[in-house]
Structure prediction request, 702 residues.
Amino acid sequence: MDRYEAEQTDLFALPNFSAQEELLSLTPQFQTFHSEVPNPVAKVVLSLPLLHMNQAFDYEVPAKFADVPIGARVAVQFGGQEVRGYIIERTSQTQAGRKLRPLRKVISPIPVLQKNIYELAQMVAKAAICPLSDCLRLAIPPRQAAVEKDYLSAVSATDFTASYATDLPIWENYQCGGEVLKNLQTKQADKTPATSLIYLEAHDSFAQMILAPIQMAAAAGKSALLILPTAQQVAELARYLQKKLPTLPVAQITAQDDPPRRYRNFLRILSGEARVVIGTRSAAWAPLSNLGFISILDENHSAYIEKRRPQIHTCEILYYRQKIESVPLLSFNYGPALRSAWKKANTAGWSCTKKNKTAEMPQILAANSFLYEGAPWARFPDSVFQVMRAALKSGPVLVVVPQTGYIPLTACEKCRELALCPHCGGYLQISAPHCPPSCSRCASSYRNFHCQKCGGNKLRAVRIGSHRTAQEIGRAFPGVIINIARAGEDIELANNDPRIVVSTPRNFSTLPQSFAAGVLLDAGYLLRSGRLESESYFLRAVTQILPALPARAAGGKLLIVGDVPPHLLQVLQNGDFSHWEATQLAERSQLQLPPTCRWYELRGVGAEIKELLTALRNYLPMPSPTEEKDATLDVLLQGGLSSVIPGITLLGPHSEGEDTILYMRFDTNARPTIQQDLYSAFCKASIKKIAPGVRVNINPIL
Prediction:
């Protein structure tokens, strides 16, 4: 029996409740701390990457720092070393049963940590089960002394009161558009703020739609937070607002900002100088005051998932901020939006679809392709050439493929196994005609390929990239100009220019919106990612093509080639995503999948995972009578589903390399306090340094 099998055998052999006795915990009493300094006790949250460092520690405010404000950066003595942190409260009471240590240093007098942002960081840390410092790192940029000095010398009180005319015509074309705008003017303090979904029509831009809400917020003296996927879209929207509302101060926040620029914009927002913030995912933490509304564009974009801890989706951060500040949330999408649809279903809001939407859409057709025994797959059926020949008479044609490159994925011609690099396991690709196969990961070249499974020495193409597609189309259309769309490169098309542009879904933002027709090749590959959101990504990719095509009445056509389920084609043709979302959410609720349920991945050594589960089981509150029976089982099947921890379903474990992986899921609606209880249990395990090597990831199956 190897190590992994041994770990699997007893992974769920956990002790029963109260098997590990704990000392009785006594809560210290509050005492008044006497000092000549008003409110001499500073509660400081420390910037330490430890899960249990989510609490504030009491320090004395010496006379020389008597004026230090709440939210200021300070340095304190902690555990024999100097640690930086933030003051979150000043009071005269303390629970520390000892003499308080004084603040060692005030790094900056500017209150960079606002109360609402601190509360947001706490909520995100609990949801992602990560150290609070990881959230504060995203919320507050590093200090730039020179920028801060210039800012303090130039800061002055500024009155931004102004009247802004509201541009409403475009909203009148959307069902429930008037209700959404009216809700922006309604005070939200006494009720749950609304979450509204706006399904943008292909030819309506986000900039035109968001102009009216910004004008309404500015006229009421409120601020606005706009989140977009990419820095390019942020810059374009900022230029548009500068043109339309030249007197309105706007700040941009993107990952491309250098530290001085980021800190300068942070200070502008903090002081209230910037009333509108436009940015990528990091802008969700912008310290705006008197917030009027929050908006997000294209919530299914992969850029919204934080790559480092807390690894949480930007939408969830915005939901927490919406709850804290009691403001409406507007989610703009060209396709479906399951996260916001779930949020709207559990709170309030509207689904806004443009009236007569199908009249402005191109005709969406499906080309049937079949795989016959012994015959190659017809990648270009006759309908493709018919649509392209007819469209080239009146203008350019757009051809979309899932991937860039020449042949990005290959397989053995004999056994059909994917061709892998023998050194690193990466996929073998062919980057150009007459080039030998090379590894997409380590770039090793293999002129003499030998299959590791059957010994075959010939390759076949599994996926065709944009470059190979352009080559094949060029043979079928001699004399027609073929362009390949690349990231960061613009393509200028003249009217009635008979050329063909080959692109991938990632390069849509650089394409002109003047094509006569479009063809989506290999559409089935967009659905074969193996991810839970593959259908959402497919619908999003197709709807992003639509703005580049004319309406059906003007002869616009989009031909979809590949194995695509009929119900998805019907959704695209009808332009009705709300019904598809409702069906998906009902299915996911039954299957207990996100967003209806919370999922976590525990990854590490099996013995440590077992130790962690034991600790969580003992630290969580006692189960209810209906759950106690499942919770006390000692004999469990290996793998599958189990309820060792009450209220939480465990799935697995299974192995991936040297790691053991276990999934946890629970329904927050079934037991609202389970998220807080689980986070507290993880913190207690962190205090005792239980299973420090186990990594926790949130919603890993998305």
